[in-house]
């Protein structure tokens, strides 16, 4: 195995079946490596996006609706009504408290479940990213100039395409 870069069109990449012989195979292999590197950059952005979504669930859980026995916006209308009819038209504090606690429990459970699912998705994306990163590193370690340039150009293209998407999140 050579320990210096060479520009040959004969190289074995990653597996025995990926044995490149000739210029056409090298062009196809460089294109595949370029696409894998673009996918690697897209996975980085996707993982960051999932992390931001997960963080928003943690820092901004659904706020429960708080009820007061006499809302200020309806206070003038209630004062105009007679005593007994105003009480029959307004819900009691006990029924509101039970509804509020149920809503809080449901929102908390749903937020926790969503946060957990987002964490699992982020972990799976991380596994893919690390695996793909090591595969690309091994491609570069073939010491072929064309494969190396394919990885570099794929990284540039992937960064150029993917990272502006972070501004829209």
Automatic annotation (TrEMBL):
The keyword Repressor does not apply. Its main location: membrane. One of its GO terms (molecular function) is copper ion transmembrane transporter activity. It is a multi-pass membrane protein. It is found in: Late endosome membrane; Membrane. The chain crosses the membrane at residues 20-43, 143-166. Keywords: Copper, Copper transport, Ion transport, Membrane, Transmembrane, Transmembrane helix, Transport. The keyword tRNA-binding does not apply. Signal peptide: none annotated. One of its GO terms (cellular component) is late endosome membrane. Belongs to the copper transporter (Ctr) (TC 1.A.56) family. SLC31A subfamily. This is Copper transport protein. It comes from Sinocyclocheilus grahami (Dianchi golden-line fish). The gene is LOC107584664.
């Amino acid at each position: 195995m050579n320990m210096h870069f060479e520009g040959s069109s004969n190289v074995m990449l990653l597996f025995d079946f990926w044995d490149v012989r000739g210029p056409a195979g090298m062009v196809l292999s460089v294109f595949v490596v370029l696409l894998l590197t673009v996918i690697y950059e897209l996975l980085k952005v996707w993982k960051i996006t999932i992390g931001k979504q997960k963080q928003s669930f943690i820092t901004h859980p659904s706020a429960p609706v708080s009820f007061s026995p006499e809302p200020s916006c309806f206070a003038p209308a209630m004062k105009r009504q007679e005593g007994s009819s105003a009480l029959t038209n307004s819900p009691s504090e006990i029924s509101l408290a039970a509804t509020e606690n149920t809503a809080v429990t449901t929102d908390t459970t749903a937020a926790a479940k969503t946060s957990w699912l987002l964490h699992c998705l982020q972990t799976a994306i991380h596994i893919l990213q690390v695996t793909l990163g090591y595969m690309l590193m091994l491609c570069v370690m073939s010491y072929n100039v064309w494969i190396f340039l394919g990885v570099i150009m794929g990284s540039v293209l992937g960064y150029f395409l993917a990272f502006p998407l972070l501004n829209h999140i």
